[in-house]
Amino acid sequence: MIPLTIPGRLFLVRHGETDWNREGRLQGGKDIPLNALGRMQAEEAARRLKALTPDYASVDYLCSPMERARETMTILRRELDLPPDDFRIDERLRELTFGDWEGFTWREIRSRERELARARESDKWGFVPPAGESYRMLAERIRPVLEALAPDTVMVSHGGVARAVLALIGAVGTADAARVEIWQGKILVVEGDKATWM
């Protein structure tokens, strides 16, 4: 994979917690709303962003179309005293879909579909769940979005998207990208081939 250079700085925010996050359920393409902690995490992300970039009002704001991401972005912008709904949505920033596995925990998947769970464990980047998509497919989907970013962009999206970004810029290898912990309430600042949690 040819490493991608993102123009300017990308402030990547993973949506706040949902009840399914708390329960360890695969959400993927399911539209699950934020819970109370998730809303507080969105507020925390706004405070972090304000400290990171005093010109936060002049950067571009881009969001996944999924409810949990849009709600996070709306709260974040409200906390910054910006018009809450004034941001762009890009369908390609949807979360990785787990297909038939959505709604289940990994423990349930390992119990029900041992062979497929083992296959995924041996190749998390390339494995395609039943009726789902792989991280490789996700990376191909979001690459054009990243190539067209404004010089400084706040993006609210998902854990899978953040992992794909890390692999695309060459910050981690594809074998490791699918295993990287992606935090809620913090901001992943991407500049060149470097990515730092703030």
TrEMBL record:
What Gene3D superfamilies does the entry give?
Phosphoglycerate mutase-like
Query: Which Pfam family, any one, appears in the UniProt record?
Result: His_Phos_1
| InterPro entries membership | His_Pase_superF_clade-1, His_PPase_superfam, PG/BPGM_mutase_AS, PGM_Phosphatase
* Membrane-crossing segments per the record: none
CDD domains on file: HP_PGM_like (cd07067)
Q: Which PANTHER family match?
A: ADENOSYLCOBALAMIN_ALPHA-RIBAZOLE PHOSPHATASE, BROAD-SPECIFICITY PHOSPHATASE YOR283W-RELATED
The identity of this protein, by name, is: Histidine phosphatase family protein
> Which species expresses this protein natively?
Bosea eneae
